[in-house]
Amino acid sequence: MAETILVVDDELNIRRVLERAFTKDGYQVYTAEGGHQALRLLEETPCDLLLTDVVMPDMTGLELLRRARQKHPNLQVILMTAYGTIPTAVEAIRSGAYDFLTKPLDMELLRKVVRNALREPATASKGAPRKPSKRKQVTFIGQSDAVRQILQTVERVADTRTTVLITGESGTGKELIARMLHEKSSRAEKPFVAVSCAAIPETLLEVELFGAVRGAYTGAETDRIGKFEAANGGTLFLDEIGDIPPLIQVKLLRVLQEREIERLGSNTPIPIDVRLVAATNRNLEEAVESGAFRSDLYYRLQVVHIHLPPLRERREDIPLLANHFLRKFAEENGRALREISPEAMQILQNACWKGNVRELENVLESAVVLASPNATVLLPEHLPPALRS
After folding, report:
1. pLDDT at 44
2. What is the mean predicted confidence (pLDDT) over 84-108?
């Protein structure tokens, strides 16, 4: 029997277009103009997939999602809306939606998402409690409003499979946020694999990410798995995503859409279950406008966007960070330092910190090591001369 799709949208033209498209693809298609009609249809006719608008007069798509999944837990759900927002997308995924697409719809992408959804069993709501990881939890230090908002977003999206794009200057802690997303998820016991795309030559990046089969290139004497396969079941963190070349952009987009990879030299697809987190210090919107970065890949990457402000924009966090690094390096190096003098702290708070938290950490490590072994208070003279001036 043909797989069945229920299309729910209050706009008649959209229902007709989607009904024609999916009927042509061989599916059995039903339509409803609102949530209440959709729930009645689901009671009368079992369906495999629910494709619903979010903003409708009688019931929101999110409410329809929850009510439909309560009675039909095996029903796959895809939401679509012209008013895509991060909180809505996050809530949709946490409530058990397979994916969240924005209008105007890319029909080819929608077809691929529908095919993938029908191949996978529906999952329960991500809001259910899970067994905590035995790993040591990483922390992002700060008490500023910006940091609080970032940590709230991390908590909301961590235990989803939604792709996250992290932006910010070098040294702001992008990889730390990526690790927090992993450690706070149900994937925490699975691999966290980090790749710096800028550090790998273009000719090697494809093999590094997707792997290769024996004989694919000169010197390939055995099969080699890539980072996607190494991260299977866990999280893959692609740092400096803005530096990947066009060919890799195309292959990465395909991985996000199909959830499968092909090793270099092979035509055999390999299914993967990887949560992708990407980061960059570049302005990807400008790269899209200039043609250096694919717009379709950009929109797939930034389903959830977390921006990390530079340290100079959250100076109230400097004392917390400075004292944390003081204690850390004093313990590691057997020093007696226990506090930072007000004068030294003032210098730290007034600095411009072009290298952000990473630069602050390096300054504190240097100061701790160069201070007298018996010193208990970090003084201005322990700080680098350039910083004092």
Report:
1. 86
2. 73
Q: Is 389 exposed, middle or buried (0-12, 13-18, 19+ CB in 10 A)?
A: exposed
Record the pTM. Answer: 0.69
Amino acid at 94: R
What is d(CA 196, CA 274) in angstroms, rounded to the nearest whole number? 17
Phi, psi at residue 104, to the nearest 5°?
-70, 140
Is residue 247 within 8 A of residue 285, CB to CB? The reply is no
Domain ranges of the chain: 4-119, 145-307, 312-388
SS3 state of residue 216: coil
CATH pick for 145-307 out of 3.75.10.10, 3.40.50.720, 3.40.50.300, 3.90.550.10: 3.40.50.300
- In angstroms, rounded to a whole number, what is the distance separating the alpha carbons of residues 247 and 69? 39
DSSP bridge pairs for 377: 339
Mean of pLDDT values over 242-260: 91
**Cα–Cα distance measured from residue 165 to residue 237, given in angstroms and rounded to the nearest whole number:** 10
CATH 3.20.20.150 fits 4-119, yes or no: no
CA distance 375 to 337: 6
Q: What is the pLDDT of residues 44-76, one digit of tens each?
A: 888 999 999 988 998 998 899 989 988 888 899
